[in-house]
Amino acid sequence: MNKVLILTKMMMKNAEPAWRVEKGSGWKTALLLIVIALGVLPMIGSAVLVISELYDGLALIGQQGAILGFGVAMTSLVIFLFGILYVLSVFYYSKDVEHLLPMPLAPGHILGAKFTLALVYEYYTAVVFLGPLFITYGVKSGAGIMYYLLAILVFLVVPVLPLVLAALVVMLFMRFTNVKKYKERFRIIGGLIGLGIAVGFQALFQRQSSGSEFGIEQIQQMLLTQENGLLGFVTQLFPGSNLAALALIDSGTWGSLGYLFAFLLVAITGIAAFLYAGTYLYFSGVMGMSESVAKRKEVVDTAFAKLVQKRPAMLAYALKEWRMLWRTPAFLMNCTLSSILIPILMLIPLLSRRDSGEMISFIQTVMQKGSAAGMVIAIAFAAFLIMGAMNSTSVTAISREGQGFFTNKLLPMPYRDILLAKLFPGLVLSAVSMLLLLAEAVWFLQLSPAFIILAIASGIPGLIFINMVGILVDLQLPKLRWSSEQEAVKQNLNPLFPLVIGLMAGGLVVLASFSLGTSMLGTALGIIVLFTLINIFLYRLLVTKGPGWLEQIEG
Q1: Alpha-carbon distance 492 to 549, whole Å?
Q2: Are 119 and 15 in contact (CB under 8 A)?
C-alpha cells in the first residue's frame, strides 16, 4: 500500500493540477481563484435553485428522497463516460507507461496508482454534481451532523464503481483489439463517437422535455402511482446508486448504516475485481503503445521541392501551429473541431423542441421591429464573442508546447513574430465559428444583407480582442508540465479567463445597447470603434511586453 501511495504521489506531481501556475506568484494564484469563482459560482447557484424547487415539489408527495437517487445515478453515469477518457489517457496514453513497465513494481502497484490518479480526476467531476445536491438536500431537510458525515463518505465512494466499470471496458477493448499502432486515429474516432452519443442524448432529452406535454405535474403523477417510483427507476439507470441514496435518506438509523455498509462492500468488491482482471488484461494491452505506423512512401524530386519550399518565417510557424492542431487528437477535439461543432450544437435546443417553429417565428417578429434592431446586433456580437472565448486555441497556444517550449528560444526569428504567428490559428477558427453561426441565422431567420455586413464588421474586432486576451493569459499562466496532450487543454483553467471576460464584455455591450436604444448602424459603429481602440492597446502590449514575458518562461 505504501508503494501505491508513493507511486500515486509521483504521478500526481508529473500530472500537475489544473490550477498550478508555472511561476507561482501570489497575484497570479489569487487572480486564477477569482476567475474560477466567477465561472463556477453562477453554475452552482443555478443548480441549487433547481434542486431546491424539485425538493419542494417532490416533498408534497413525500418523494423528496428520490432527488438523491437521481443525482447519484446521473453523476455515476457522467463519471462512467468521463472515466473511459481518463482511463485511456492515464492508463494507456500517458508518457510514464513505458518507464513504469521495466521497474520492479508489482502489477497491483501500477494499477492501484493509476486508478487512484484517475479517481482524483473524477472527484473534480463529482464535486460539481454532488456538492450542490448533498448540501441543498441537507439544508432543505434540516438534516443533522450525521447526514453530512455520511454524505462525505458517500461522495468519496460514488466515483469508484463507475470508474471500475469504465476501466474494465477499456482494458477488455485494448486487450483484444489491435488499435495500439493506430492509437492517434483511434483516439479521434473514439472522441467523435463519444461526442455523437452525448449530442444524441441531449437531443433526445430536449425533445422529451420540451413543450407542454411534459412537466413537474406529470412527474408527480407518475410518482403517485407507485411508492419510491423515481428511486426505483434510477436504480436501473446505474447499479448501486439506490444504496447510496438510501444511506442518506434516513441518516443515522441502523438501516442507513446497513445501506452504507452494502454500498462500501460493492465498491470494495469492484476494486478487487479491477485489480484481479487488470493483472491479466492491462499489461498485455499496453505493450507496444509507444509504437506507431508510418507510411513508407518514396519522395520524388518535385514532391521534395514542394516540401522544402521557402516561406516567410512567420507564415511557416503559423502553418506549423495549424498542422499540430489537426494532427494531435486532443488538440483536434478540444480546439479545432469545437469551433465547427459548437455552432451546430447550439441548434439542438432549438430544433429538438416541439415548438421550434413558433420560436423561430417569434424571433423573426422581434427582429423586424426597428427599436430592437440595434440590440439584435449587440446580441449577435455577444454571441460571436462568447463563441470565440469558448475556443481554447489561443489561450493554450503556449501551454500546448509543453516541455518542448525551449525550442522557441532557439529559432532564428523574433519573439514578436512567434506570438503573432500563434494568434493565427485561433483567429481563423474563431472566424469559422462566427461564419457558421451567421449562416445558420441567415438560413432560419432570413436576415437582411445590411444586418449580415454589420454583424461581420462588428464581430471581427471582437474575435481579435478575445484571442489577444487568450494569448496574453497564456503568457502569464502557461501550463507546460503535462504528461499527455489532454492535460494541456482539458486540465488547464486558462480558458476560463477569456470565457469570463467574453461573458462580461458581451453582457455589457447588450446592456449598453438596450439602455441607449441605438440603431443597428449606431450599435455596430460603436462596437467597431470601441473594440478597435482596445485591440490597438492589446496589440501594443503584446508586441512590447510579450517578448519579455516569453523570454522569462522556463520550459
Answers
A1: 19
A2: no
